[in-house]
Design goal:
single chain, alpha/beta
Length: about 525
């Protein structure tokens, strides 16, 4: 019998291969793994130079498919995770969520949407549903519909206070299924509280990455040659105001605060990687258990994050921006019918997850769903599900930031600080994938990063040679904002007669082308 690529790749490090007994076709299980705040460029599958060691995820990617174009659509709150997790659960676009400003009053979100979210849909279809994840900044009305729910925020540096706790909840659940001889297929939402700050890593992993759990605002952490190098797009400060004054993620993260010096950022990256490797270890425990139960071969496994993270890239610390390190998310999928060792652009949003899970499980998606199934991409039948991608951040001053991407070309617009900051950025990602700016060419920055940008590694918006690409993306951005019911317009767009929007308080706590050289 043909061997399953998931088993072959994963068990090389997890356990010995066991015999597989032929059985009648069963409905597939689903293991959906979501981490909290992780740039795709933390992982070697996206940045081979990354020092982060994730052997389980590496083998998961070797057994399945890596997406090079997976994105969250954006946020209207500094707590970017909240709209992102609402989109995952409901398959709704960003301005059509129950927590989107004005969405319910404007008739853009149906009432009782939680009854058409992942747990509700799969409960009705006869799946056994289980969830473990952090508390808060999520979709509580949907979360409580999982048949088994074991949530707690665990960001500590021990097994009980950190990521092992979430793995323990899944393992206990699987033990209970095994003891009860459960036959219903399962959907497990396996969420972690890390690597979101505070990034308190386990001591042995902190040592590995040259980091300490620094908590004294008045001192710097000790310099350590083992700490990860600065990212190539590191800056000591963003070239203009990001538009969200006193943003917690930019001024109050323990261990960083407002500092962007080399020692602080390298230490924080070490903490991030210590938490990331621990997550990898915990995923390995769960996959080993699934194999021992004979469930691994019939399980679709997805790994992703609710959004990316800056940690020094472009002089930023948080998740409230639309650069690729933060707008993009890591996304790996493995399971029956997914070609081993494959990659796809995808052009997927996290809001496509609901539709795709339904498609794989043979379930009709709810009528409220606005996402697209990327099953054809998973099966190698097509490379993308859409041509144009839209991103938004307006959790600070309005209208905020907007982005649109088509092919290799990407546009970011900033209209913040009551019109005091109005900026346009244009990148060709095929040539300048790190979105380097003129500031990255400064001698000190090149010395700190060890990277010497090419002269064309800059923002191209003011270059008349790219006026055509700029005009096309400006038009696409307006079209997407209209299509998605964006309630704002930026300074060089028509106002469309939009009425002023009463914004609720933030949640607590392009055309493919070659660059001209």
């Amino acid at each position: 019998m043909k061997s399953n690529p998931i088993r072959f790749a994963l068990l090389a490090t997890l356990c010995a291969v066991t015999s597989i007994v032929a059985a009648e076709p069963r409905r597939p299980n689903i293991l959906f793994i979501l981490v909290d705040d992780q740039s795709p460029f933390d992982l070697k599958i996206y940045d081979p130079k990354s020092p982060l060691q994730t052997p389980v995820l590496d083998r998961l990617a070797a057994a399945g498919m890596t997406f090079d174009g997976a994105y969250h659509m954006g946020a209207f709150s500094g707590a970017v995770c909240a709209p992102s997790r609402h989109m995952i659960m409901s398959g709704r676009t960003v301005w059509h969520l129950p927590n989107a400003p004005g969405a319910m009053k404007r008739g853009l979100c149906p009432p009782e949407l939680e009854q058409n979210t992942i747990p509700a849909v799969f409960n009705r279809a006869g799946y056994a549903t289980m969830r473990t994840c952090k508390m808060g900044n999520s979709y509580e009305a949907a979360n409580k519909l999982f048949a088994v729910r074991r949530d707690a925020t665990k960001r500590g540096g021990t097994d009980e206070s950190g990521s092992a706790w979430h793995a323990d909840q899944v393992l206990t659940y699987l033990d209970e299924r095994e003891a009860g001889q459960a036959t219903a297929p399962f959907l497990i939402y396996f969420g972690f509280s890390h690597p979101h700050d505070t990034r308190d890593g386990k001591p042995e992993l902190l040592d590995k990455y040259g980091a300490v759990n620094h908590a004294d605002r008045n001192t710097l952490p000790s310099a350590n040659s083992q700490a990860p190098p600065l990212p190539v797009n590191y800056l000591p400060a963003h070239p203009f105001h990001h538009g969200h004054p006193n943003l917690r993620d930019e001024v109050a993260v323990s261990g960083v605060w407002e500092r962007r010096d080399e020692i602080t950022i390298r230490n924080e990256l070490g903490r991030e990687f210590a938490c990331g490797e621990n997550i990898d270890i915990q995923i390995g425990r769960v996959l080993k258990k699934l194999d021992a139960m004979g469930e691994l071969d019939n399980t679709y496994i997805f790994y992703t994050a609710d959004h990316g993270m800056a940690i020094g890239r472009h002089g930023l610390q948080g998740k409230q921006n639309l650069y690729e390190h933060t707008w993009r998310v890591p996304f790996i999928a493995a399971g029956p019918g997914i070609p081993a060792g494959s990659r796809a652009q995808g052009n997927i949003y996290l809001l496509d997850v609901l539709s795709t899970l339904c498609d794989l499980a043979g379930i009709q998606p709810p009528k409220t769903n606005e996402g697209r199934s990327f099953r054809p991409v998973l099966e190698g039948k097509q490379d993308t599900v859409r041509d144009v991608l839209f991103g938004v951040y307006c959790g600070g001053t309005k209208p905020g930031m907007r982005s649109v991407k088509k092919g290799d070309w990407k546009l970011i617009k900033y209209d913040v600080m009551d019109g005091q900051v109005r900026e346009t950025q244009l990148f060709n990602l095929a040539v300048n994938p790190d979105e380097l700016l003129s500031q990255h060419h400064a001698p000190d920055v090149m010395r700190w990063t060890g990277n010497r940008p090419e002269k064309h590694h800059v923002n191209l918006a003011a270059d008349p040679r790219y006026a055509e690409q700029l005009a096309e993306l400006e038009a696409l951005l307006l079209a997407e904002m209209r299509r998605l019911d964006d309630p704002y317009r930026i300074w060089n767009q028509p106002d469309d007669g939009l009425a002023p929007l009463s914004v609720e308080p933030a949640a607590k706590k392009a055309k493919t082308g070659k660059i001209k050289q």
